[in-house]
Design a protein that fits this description.
alpha/beta; Fucosyltransferase; GT10-like_C_sf; about 35% helix; Rossmann fold; about 15% strand; globular; membrane; transmembrane; five-stranded parallel beta sheet; two-stranded parallel sheet
C-alpha cells in the first residue's frame, strides 16, 4: 500500500471537532495500525542454524527490487546503487517477472521466490513519510532474506536489532553495495542479520488492529472525552513527506 500525499482540507472542514480518536500508521495516532510486529517465541528454535545453512546455499543472486511505482527518489537511489552492483528489477519498472501475476496482492509465492533466490531485497518507500512502513517489510522479514530499507520510519525502533540495512546509515550507495557483496560471501556475517529468528517470530496485522479498535470501542477504560478539533492540521503536522 502506498501513501497518498494529498490535501483533504476541504473534505474535513465539515467534520472538525467530531473525531475522538485517530487510527493510522503514525506513532502519534490514538490507535496505531501497522502491517506487522515481532514477538518472542515460547522456545528457542534449536534447528534454526542447520536449516539456515541449507537455505543460504540455494541463494544465487545478490539483490532484487520490486517497486510499486516507477521513478522518484527510490528509483534515483537504485540507479546509483546499480552502478556498483547488479540489481534485478521486477514488475513494470523492470524486465523481470514473478511466475504469478501479482506481487502486492498478498502473493506469497512471489515473496518466497525472491527470498529464496536473493540475499537482499530493496524495500524502499514510494513516499518518504514519518513512521510509514510498507506492508512488504514484515512479509519479507518472515523469510530468510535481508531487507535493505529506505524511508521515513525509525527502523531501529520497529525491527529487530540488526535485521535490516538502513541506507540512511551509509552516506553513499557504494557503501551499501560493498556491505552486501561482503556479507553475501561471508556466512557468519550474513547470518547475523537473521540471528533474531531463533527466538522471535513475525506477526502480520492485516486485520488484528481492527479487532483492537473494536475492543477499545467497547472498553469503558478507553473512553476518550476529548476530540480532535482539526484532523487536517493533525495529519499534516510533522509528516515531512517527500515524493
Amino acid at each position: 500500500m502506498d501513501t497518498q500525499i494529498e490535501s483533504f482540507e476541504e473534505r474535513t472542514k465539515p467534520i472538525k471537532g467530531l473525531f475522538n480518536w485517530t487510527m493510522g500508521y503514525r506513532q502519534d495516532s490514538d490507535i496505531v495500525h501497522s502491517f506487522g510486529s515481532v514477538a518472542r517465541k515460547n522456545h528457542t528454535d534449536a534447528t534454526r542454524d542447520a536449516v539456515l545453512v541449507k537455505r543460504l546455499r540455494s541463494k544465487s543472486h545478490l539483490v532484487a527490487w520490486y517497486p510499486t511505482r516507477c521513478g522518484g527518489s527510490a528509483a534515483e537511489y537504485v540507479a546509483r546503487l546499480a552502478s556498483h552492483v547488479s540489481v534485478d528489477v521486477y514488475g513494470r519498472c523492470g524486465n523481470l517477472r514473478c511466475q504469478t501475476l501479482s506481487f502486492y496482492d498478498h502473493d506469497e509465492d512471489c515473496y518466497e521466490m525472491l527470498a529464496g533466490k536473493y540475499f537482499f531485497v530493496l524495500v524502499f518507500e514510494t513516499d518518504t513519510c514519518a513512521d510509514f512502513l510498507t506492508r512488504a517489510l514484515h512479509r519479507f522479514l518472515r523469510y530468510d532474506v535481508v531487507p535493505v530499507v529506505k524511508g521515513g520510519a525509525n527502523y531501529s525502533a520497529v525491527t529487530p536489532p540488526g535485521s535490516v540495512v538502513d541506507v540512511k546509515q551509509y552516506p553513499e550507495p557504494y557503501e551499501v553495495a560493498a556491505l552486501m557483496m561482503k556479507s553475501a560471501v561471508n556466512f557468519t556475517q550474513y547470518s547475523e542479520y537473521l540471528s533474531w529468528k531463533r527466538d522471535h517470530d513475525v506477526i502480520l496485522h492485516d486485520h488484528d488492529d481492527f479487532c483492537g479498535l473494536c475492543d477499545k470501542l467497547y472498553s469503558k477504560e478507553y473512553v476518550k472525552k476529548s476530540s480532535h478539533e482539526d484532523v487536517n492540521a493533525w495529519w499534516h503536522s510533522g509528516t515531512n513527506c517527500v515524493m
